[in-house]
Design brief:
5 helices; elongated; mainly alpha; single chain; two-stranded antiparallel ribbon; 130 residues
């Protein structure tokens, strides 16, 4: 995971004088969950089982990607405020990033749990029931 740091150079760690460590840890955890869940659902080698909860999987992965983007934007906004001064727009970016990590990213946990369970709710349905 690459996040910006002072001078715009990419780094794997948060800005040293920043307080994005909780968000960085949450994002790292979500990325690790993507890896473990993906391995688990494909372990059977059966694409039907692996893809049975594809919508939920994509929702969780999409939220993780959005969290990464919000982390980049929030950190970049903080650096820009440090370099150029206060800005309501940039403070809004920081607030939006923090919102996403507080209210949106935590939703991925139950979604990953569902995918990892390999629930067969959809494949168990008979088309005549619909």
């Amino acid at each position: 995971m690459r996040v910006p740091r002072r001078g715009g150079r990419p780094s794997r760690a948060p800005v040293p004088d920043s307080d994005w460590s909780a968000e960085t840890a949450a994002l790292t955890s979500a990325v690790e969950r993507i890896e473990s869940v993906t391995a688990a659902v494909w372990s059977s080698g059966d694409p039907t089982v692996a893809l049975d909860n594809a919508w939920t999987y994509l929702e969780a992965v999409g939220h993780t990607v959005m969290a990464w983007l919000w982390l980049q934007q929030g950190m970049a906004a903080e650096v820009t405020i440090d370099e150029r001064g206060d800005s309501a727009f940039l403070k809004g970016k920081i607030a939006a990033a923090r919102y996403f990590f507080t209210h949106e990213l935590p939703q991925t946990g139950p979604w990953f749990d569902l995918v990892e369970s390999r629930a067969t709710t959809f494949t168990d349905l008979d088309d005549s029931w619909l």
